[in-house]
Amino acid sequence: MIEYKRNEKISVEAFRQVLISSGINRPVNDIPRLQAMLDNSNLIWTAWDGDRLVAVARSLTDFSFVCYMSDLAVASDYQKQGIGKKLIDKTKEDLGPTVAFLLLSAPSAMEYYPKVGLKNISNAFFTPRKD
């Protein structure tokens, strides 16, 4: 049975393993950067199968106007079970109806997000990272 936890302390290595397994493109070999990603997020929902971290939804929000979900990663052997949708739902429940919710999708996930109730928008702008 999957257990969902809000702002549960997770190790950088457990986070790293979920990112690797999920296939999401993140700097998984830069441990200090991964740790900073965890440390500077203010809303993290996680999914656990016993002691194993199986999914992470990592967000930045002011809890008043907008929330940016920067990671939604589900371990490959737990995908297609509704865990990602549940993490989005739990995040949105925390925010309430007056907070806008947004995320950037990987090209491979563009068909997933409309299925879980998110709207595709065309009025966003982006400056890429210099890694």
UniProtKB/TrEMBL annotation:
Pfam short name (any one): Acetyltransf_10
Coiled coil feature spans: none
Gene3D superfamilies found in the cross-reference section: 3.40.630.30
PROSITE patterns membership: GNAT
Domain N-acetyltransferase: 2-131
Keywords: Transferase
Molecular function per GO: acyltransferase activity, transferring groups other than amino-acyl groups
Protein's recorded name: GNAT family N-acetyltransferase
Species assigned in the record: Floricoccus tropicus
